[in-house]
Amino acid sequence: MRELLSKIARRHEAVVEGPTFCTVLDLGTEQVKALVVEMRGSECSVVGVGSASCRQAWCGMDGRVVDISRVRRSCGQALGRAEDMTARCCGTQVVPDWVVIGLPNCLTTAETFSVTHHRSDPSTRVTERELREVAERAQRLALRRLGRKMQSRHNPECTKARLVETSVCDLQVDGRSVTDPLGFRGEKLALTVFNVAVSSSYLRSVEEMAEGLGLEILMTSSGWQALASAVGARQSVAIDVGGRATDIAVVYTGRAQATASIPLGGGDFTEHLAEVLELPWREAERLKLAYSRGVIGIPVEAQAVMSRVTEAWLGAVSTLVGKLSGSHPVPHRFNLCGGGSKLLGIVEAVRSHPWMEVLGVSRHPQVRLMEPRDIPRVLDRTGQLRGQQYVAPAALAAYVMLRDTQEDSLRSLLWQVKRPEIFVDSGEGA
Fold first, then answer.
1. pLDDT of 330-344, one tens digit each?
2. In whole angstroms, what is the distance from residue 130 CA to residue 133 CA?
3. How far apart are alpha carbons 332 and 315 in whole angstroms?
4. Considering the chain, what percentage of its residues have pLDDT values greater than 90?
5. CA angle (100, 264, 73) in 5-degree steps
6. Taking 70 as the threshold, does the pLDDT of residue 5 lie above it?
7. Is 38 exposed, middle or buried (CB count within 10 Å of its CB: 0-12, 13-18, 19+)?
8. What sign has the CA pseudo-torsion 367, 322, 346, 385?
9. 89 DSSP β-pair partners
10. Residue 405 above 50 pLDDT?
């Protein structure tokens, strides 16, 4: 992130002193969220908030765009509302040129890969050269596997991909996690890398959209590590219930180390209501929201539909959490966010689920419904940053502000490792 912040500073240092502004644009599967943020030192202040519907703008899980003009209009509406709000917080309207774009996690392919290096002489200290060699080997193998995963996931026409995020998840010496292994002695040095790729056709659509809005992309990113950082626990399960998908990240050592999405979100509750009760989509959405607010008089049939979909959703989540945890113990902290997490019964269903019997966990998980105010390093000056749907963009804003010299050095190295032919373009971030 140091490179990102210095890039901003260089652009503005000749014309402006003081705070720097940029926009965070979170591209959801049903709703676009925009934040105008002021970055001053280690603080990130939200001075504008906006959102707009983009329902049916994206096609399925392969990243193809149905109507790029519709996406651009939705983003323009969200940006306009956020920028209009800045006048109240800043005394004048702020319209940033720079944007950080958060991609829908369900349209990305994330992969965690670990290598273990058996050292020839455990009595010697780990050197920088040794660490670099292990990191390069891990990344080469990781990108090879990620490329194969991308090819098997997408349609034949989506054969090219772009790497949008890479980082070191964990460093261990003889099985113990360390922040910096340099100088340690030991038999085994293990390194875990996390990479995120997206189809190049999808990312081209995003870049065209940004260009049409007159924005310059500072960074494109998934929300996996941003959300993992935001939950504030070294071990946890983060569940983001979006419009068309639910993203699940199992977090160890404060990093997302196993991630996946299921194609079931808040919008699917509406679709089931509309189908079973034979209602127009808008009426079904109104009924769903009334149900979630606990409004009296909701038809029994509607309640039954919501209960059935909630049960199916929880079954899929439970299965995936168990699969993602693998041989590791399932964390006992569950953090829910996303607009769909506000649906009546979702949080209670997670809390009452027999996790100890189903997954064999040692204790029943603590379940928390996250709020934007829970995100460290983010200050809300608008008073409008409320609701679970704004947790992800707020987490992305906070993630942009993170700086870690050791990780930055390794991340720079990971970006330089030669990639398989499936990957096009070589620039970091955008």
1. 999 999 999 999 888
2. 5
3. 18
4. 56
5. 40
6. no
7. buried
8. positive
9. none
10. no
Residue 134's H or E segment, with its range, is helix 128-153
pLDDT at 294: 72
Q: 178 or 306: which carries more pLDDT confidence?
A: 178
Element (H, E) at 27: strand 20-27
Question: What are the pLDDT digits (tens) for 98-126?
Answer: 999 999 998 899 999 999 999 999 999 99
Q: DSSP letter at 182?
A: T
Q: What is the pLDDT of residues 187-214, one digit of tens each?
A: 999 999 999 999 888 898 899 899 999 9
The domains located in the chain, with CATH, are 2-105+205-223+374-405 (3.30.420.40), 108-196 (3.30.1490), 233-369 (3.30.420.40)
Q: Which residue has the tokens 């490792």?
A: 417
Scan for tokens 């774009």, then name that residue. 101
CA–CA dist 190, 188 (Å, integer): 6
- 143-to-26, 132, 140, 324 alpha-carbon distances in Å: 26, 16, 5, 20
Neighbours of 9 (CB within 10 A): 11
Angle CA(214)–CA(216)–CA(219) in degrees, nearest 5? 145
Question: What's the rounded Cα separation, in Å, for the pair 165 and 224?
Answer: 10
Place of tokens 């928390």: 368
Q: Are 249 and 224 in contact (CB under 8 A)?
A: yes
Q: How would you classify residue 17: left for phi > 0, otherwise alpha for psi between -120 and 50, otherwise beta?
A: beta
Cα–Cα distance, 355 to 317 (Å, whole number): 11
What is the number of helices (H) and of strands (E) in the chain?
A: 12, 17
Total-model pTM: 0.88
Q: Any idea which residue has 């292990």 for tokens? A: 134
Angstrom distances, CA of residue 344 to CA of 221, 303, 316: 31, 10, 18
Which residue, 12, 77, 21, 79, is CA-closest to 45? 21
Query: What are the residue ranges of helices labelled H in 177-296?
Result: 200-212, 224-230, 266-277, 281-292
The predicted-structure confidence for 109-168, as pLDDT tens digits, reads as follows 999 999 999 999 999 999 999 999 999 999 999 999 999 988 887 555 557 899 999 999
Q: Is the pLDDT of residue 80 over 90?
A: yes
Phi-psi bin for 292: left (phi > 0), alpha (psi -120 to 50), beta? alpha
Q: At what angle do helices 266-277 and 300-325 cross, to 10 degrees?
A: 140
